[in-house]
Amino acid sequence: MTHAAAAFEDAYGRPPEGVWHAPGRVNLIGEHTDYNDGLVLPLALPQGVSVAAARRDDGVLEVRSLQAAAAGHRVRVAELAPGAVAGWAAYPAGVAWALREHGVGGASLLIDSDLPQGAGLSSSAALECATALALCELYGAGPDRAELARLAQRAENEFVGVPCGIMDQSASLLCTAGHALLLDCRSGLSTQVPLALGEEWSLLVVDTRAPRALADGRYADRRAECEQAARLLGVAALRDVTDLPGALRALQAARRPRGLLRRSSGPDTAALQRRVRHVVTENHRVEAAVGLLRAGALGEVGALLTAAHLSLRDQFEVSWPQADTAVDAALRAGARGGRMVGGGFGGSVIVLTPADRAEAVRASIAAAYAERGWEAPAFLEAVPSPGARRLG
Ligand code: GLA
Q1: Is the whole-model pTM more than 0.90?
Q2: I need a labelling partner for 213 at 20 to 30 A (CA). Which of 157, 162, 175, 257 fits?
């Protein structure tokens, strides 16, 4: 019996009907491209969120979490509405809300997680996806996994109020063991790309100990800048920019008007140029990484990771000091490449290193942290793992 199933029995005095698990993710490459209709290449982690669940016939959703101190939350599914539930419980409640029209009703849920929270490894998406799969299977609801990812995203956007893209939920639901998931965020089409680390390579996840929060507004600011740039360029999304120098010139020309209107504030075109440069080059880096992976040249992907980091740091301006320090220290110790992952402003870094350098890389990062008096970083191995599934 899983830990979650035993805890469910303790909490609710009856066995669950099943236990479902959804993984966290790291994104190999393709950051801040999902909401620009671009390409992403995430992989699922071994760690994730488990949900033990059973239906209830009184229309109530009851949620408890082994990671939360509070007793739990109870709410009638029929009364769910954006803003009605606060804190972590908003994530499972939002999923029940989004699935209402698919015939999903009341349930008792017991949640257990081995994903570090605030580390930028998508613990929220894992919670949403494990809940979504549990409720769909319990109620025989029909959405396929791609649609379920959109429903979970909708729950987060509209019910919780966080303006995330589609990457994290897609990764949690669609990834397979031994692969990264190439997702075209415009068409929704996805392809499994073999990611064989073998004995030779290690993909380290460094929790930089700078907790992040998507809800703090800076992520939303970046989204708004991308939308503004797309409007000024007359394209549906930055995905559609094919001529980067031309686009940068066009933005230059959109500078604040001269003369009488001098004092009216126009767009900060220099910042928009940097955002566009990042998104356009990042999509190319995803394509290049996929080509190299298919050619069996994993080591060459390292340089792309580092290029992505520099672009996120200097063009998109979402990196943070611990991430920059971790990447530098890893490269100095012989890693092939590394970069910040996720939305930015805190969270994790990934490092691709020959396995026989992994120990030296960890030590180098830890030493750089110690020198600065920062809380020691934590390390995980990113083993490309299966997507969400029923455990029992
Ligand atoms: C967060 C969001 C994703 C994506 C990344 C940046 O993880 O949840 O949708 O936008 O940031 O690539």
Answers
A1: yes
A2: 175
